[in-house]
Amino acid sequence: MIVTTKKLFEAAYGKYAIGAYNINNLEQAMGLFQGNIDSQAPFIIQISKGSRSYTNKLMLEGIIRAADEVFPESIFAVHLDHGDEATCMDCIKSGFYSSVMIDASSEPYEKNIETTKRVVDAAHAKGIVVEAELGQLGGVEEHVNVSEDNAKLTNPDQAKDFVERSGCDSLAVAIGTSHGAFKFQGSQSLHFDVLSQIQKNLPGFPLVMHGSSSVPQEEVERINAAGGKLLGAKGVDASQFRQAAQLGVTKINIDTDGRLVWTRVHREYFLEHPEGFDLRAPGKIFMAEYAKFIAQKNDYLGSAGHLEEVRKLVS
Question: Does the keyword Metal-binding apply (predicted)?
Fold first, then answer.
């Protein structure tokens, strides 16, 4: 069942965070849905600008529609991740997405508000909710590439003004996370003091944490043992998710970790089976491993076990 992120946030606020997982293909979709059913968790399926053009946006949308039929007990939102204005408008027009993110965080403050408000007006007219971003995360994710020198924490004093003037439904905040597999180096850490102040200025308003993959060291070590060279990769401590949820974070984005699981499975499989050429063999392993990973991540988020409770709220 496809619902809006707004419905999910109302159920989760202050108690747990909803996992927002990026997918690019059939195997990720199958593992994602199965993992959320296994852990009885509502979730957000994210489609990025890059994944929409990986093959064709209609292919990925078709996979999600099919998964909705294969797993009719699932409850999830379909969300555009890191969209520019043109992509947001295209998704709003399509009628498939229940939520879009407009990321104008690289623009000056006033222009960010203006751009976000145009998207909000168009989305709300069709019953679609909007996530915006204030502040800038460092790191690299598809077309988003921000050096750590240019990363900026969200200004808590601006947050309330931004939300009121833009009309957005949730706000992605920069509190020290970053995109990609190399998140924490040097003095980087999560700034719960900043997050706490943002929540005080926006009580009850859903906040979003991007760049939140944990980059499990076991995955990194196994990838490297199978021929990879991910040296120094480090992510967010998943044990901190609950603390963030208590401070208003209702959506936590996870993309890199899913790519690491995919890479580990395929590197190990073809290292152990150099004669192999059937893509379905590692594909089956990945779907099972990704489902297990999703269920474990939902335990950290606190969303596991809440599916029936959410069903009653959205029915």
Answer: yes
- CA 30 to chain centroid, in Å, comes to 17
Q: Counting beta carbons within 10 angstroms of the beta carbon of residue 108, is it exposed (0 to 12), middle (13 to 18) or buried (19 or more)? A: exposed
Instruction: For residue 47, list its beta bridge partners.
Output: 80
- By annotation, the residues acting in catalysis are 81
- DSSP class of residue 211 equals S
The domain that holds 13 is classified in CATH as 3.20.20.70
Q: Which residues are annotated as a binding site for Zn(2+)?
A: 82, 103, 133, 179, 210
**Is residue 83 classed as helix, strand or coil in its secondary structure?**
strand
Element (H, E) at 140: strand 138-141
User: What does the alpha-carbon distance between residue 17 and residue 118 come to, in Å, rounded to a whole number?
Assistant: 28
SS (H, E, C) 218-275: HHHHHHHHCCCCCCCCECCCHHHHHHHHHCCEEEEEECHHHHHHHHHHHHHHHHHCCC
Provide the greatest CA pair distance for the chain: 60
Count structural domains, the chain: 1
**Contact between residue 268 and residue 228 where contact means Cβ atoms under 8 Å apart:** no
Binding positions for dihydroxyacetone phosphate are 180, 211-213, 253-256
Decide: 144 and 82 in contact? Cβ < 8 Å: yes
Structural domain harbouring 212 = 5-314
The runs of H, that is alpha helices, within the chain are 5-12, 26-38, 49-54, 57-70, 85-94, 109-124, 156-166, 192-201, 217-225, 241-246, 256-272, 280-301, 307-314
Which pair of tokens denotes residue 131?
């996530």
pLDDT digits (tens, 9 = 90+) for 160-213: 999 999 999 999 999 877 544 444 444 456 789 999 999 999 999 999 998 878
The residue type at 62? G
**Which token pair is 66?**
């099919």
